[in-house]
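Can't paste images in this forum, so I'm doing it all in text. The chain is below; anyone willing to post the predicted structure tokens underneath?
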Amino acid sequence: MKVTIKGLGDFEVKDLPYKTARQLHRKNSRVFWGKSEEDVNPDEYYDLLEEVRELSGLKDVELNKLTMLEVDQLLQQILMDYLGLNPKD
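Text version of the structure:
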């Protein structure tokens, strides 16, 4: 699956099987369910993004070219794509 980030480029990431996508959806829901922005635990959220990084198959050499903010942006986009939360063109 290709993920495009405006200003950063295209990234090829692994597709997820349905079961793995459902597990990821469940974890994502637990991070945010019933919580205000102030109540979201940043450690849980970054653990989720790290899991997305591992599942995506991205290599350190690809990520080393980016700032940490850009890595977060990329991983958030991948998470949204994995969960089907981005509108399709």
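Helices lie at 18-32, 42-56, 60-63, 68-82. The chain has four helices and two strands.
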